[in-house]
Every structure is written in C-alpha cells, then in structure tokens.
Amino acid sequence: MPEPRIQSYFDPDTWTVTHIVSCPITRRAAVIDSVLDYDPKSGRTSTASAQKVLDHVKANDLTVDWHLETHAHADHFSAAPWLKERLGGKIAIGEHIKTVQKVFSGIFNAKDIDAEGRQFDVMFKDGDTFNVGEIPFRVMHTPGHTPACVVYVTDGHAFIGDTLFMPDYGTARCDFPGGDAATLYRSIRKLLSLPGDTKLHLCHDYQPGGREPRWVTTVDEQRRSNIHVHDGITEEEFVAMRTARDKTLAMPTLILPSVQVNARAGHFPPPEDNGVAYLKIPLNVL
Fold it and tell me: Nearest CA to 202 among 182, 181, 172?
C-alpha cells in the first residue's frame, strides 16, 4: 500500500486544519474538513481558505473523490459544496448526522432539513471502508463531542476531527446537544487502541500559551501526556473533569450560523422570495 501524501492548511480565524490526502500512484484524493470563510459582522462568506485547497489540487493534478466531514462543525462553515462544484467528488459524513439534523432542525424550525441525511452523498456506518486511490480507509464512529463524530483510519494515519486535541490542550467539550463525556471517554480509548506510532491528524489546534500551531500527534504521545485523558485517568475522573470544565465555557462564536450550514452538508438555507438566504438566531433556546 502506498504511503499517503498529506497537505494540511491551518485557518487561524477558526483554528481549523483542512487535510488533503492523496494517493501518489493514482493521484486520487480526499479533502477532509474544508473551510468556507465567514465574517459574522457582515454576514459575508469568502473562499480564501477553500481556494488554497483548489490551488493545491490543480497544481498537483489530483482528482478529488471525497469531501469528508468528521462531524457537523460548530465553529466554521464547510466549503465542501463549493469545492465539489469545481472538483467533483462526494460529500460524506457519519450516518449519525441524522441525529444532529433532528435536533437542530427543531431548534431552527428548518423545514428543509428532513433528518434523513439526504443533503450528503454518503453516510458512513461504523466499520465502513472506502478507498482514496490505492489507499484503503476504515471509518471509526467516535461519538461524545457530537453524536455524529467519525475518524478516518488508514495504515499509520488517522484523521480524528475533534475526538482529541494536542496533548497540551486535551479534549473537546461535550455539552452540545447529543454530546456526552462518558461516551467521549470510550471513543477516545477506542481510538487510542490503534498502534502506538499511528499519526493522529487533528481538525483544530487552539495554540495554548501562544505556541505555534500543531496538528499531528501520535497514539503513544496522547496516551502518555494528554492533560485530560492520558493512561491512568479513569472514566469517572474524566467525566467529572469534563463536566466541570464545560460549565465554564462560553458557546463558540459561530455555533448558530455554522450548525445551520453544516447540517445541510455545507449548503446555505433555501433563499426566500427575495432571492436572499438567511441564517436564524433562535432566542433563549440554547
């Protein structure tokens, strides 16, 4: 099996990392957790981050088969539809996106979200497999942060979304609708049962202490030194820590606009009779 080529781009506005994974033999590729730029003050979107992906694909003569989402992000818009329109490929996510859609279609009274996942081209089940060229991948369901979180695993590499952060930052919050700290702990232990030298490619880095951004770690490093969930931390201890910490956290700045877009696979809400699409802000709900 060929070693995947991985190009990653860090967006400092949302602390998000987008990965382009390609097969060196066939030049087939997957884009994981793309970013559509959004200015909440003006309500305008732009494509500077997505353009970097597009430029890399074109410069390296890649064919994109997949636009993979690790979950319905609460801190940035997905650029998957914009990239799909220009590059082709299928938009995919874990099948439990339907649970997320059911919750948020009610919160936003979004009649166009039917909670059947039809906005996505593919919904993976736990254990499903797919290929990027000659590189086989396996889908690992890792709920806890959200019900729909998945990890994309190939030999020596795993693209883990928000299942873990860098060891000096710890783990993701579990207080979003459908999140659960005990479930996240079990998902993390499943992830950390991969071989110790497996490289874990993160979706976010929040640069604690102002250090330079980092988004690659290993199973061994996480088991040894993750500040929240290193080896020896029990489920009970983790749940107590995570629950207390989550109570101190403000909601992400872009959660309300982002979830409306990402539950629709990166598409905007349907335009109204004046041709303009609107995002909703539910009052006193969350």
Answer: 172
CA separation for the pair 119, 263 (Å, rounded): 8
Tokens of 190: 């499943």
- End-to-end CA gap in the chain: 47
Residues 6 or more apart from 262 whose CB is under 8 A from it? 69, 72, 73, 74, 77, 78
Give the Cα separation of 20 and 252 in Å (integer): 26
What whole-number distance in Å separates Cα of residue 277 and Cα of residue 156? Answer: 43
- Candidate CATH numbers 3.60.15.10, 3.40.350.10, 3.30.1490.20, 3.90.950.20; the one for domain 5-258: 3.60.15.10
Query: Given this model, what pLDDT does residue 85 score?
Result: 98
Tell me the pTM.
0.96
* Model confidence pLDDT, tens digit, residues 248-265: 999 888 999 999 999 999
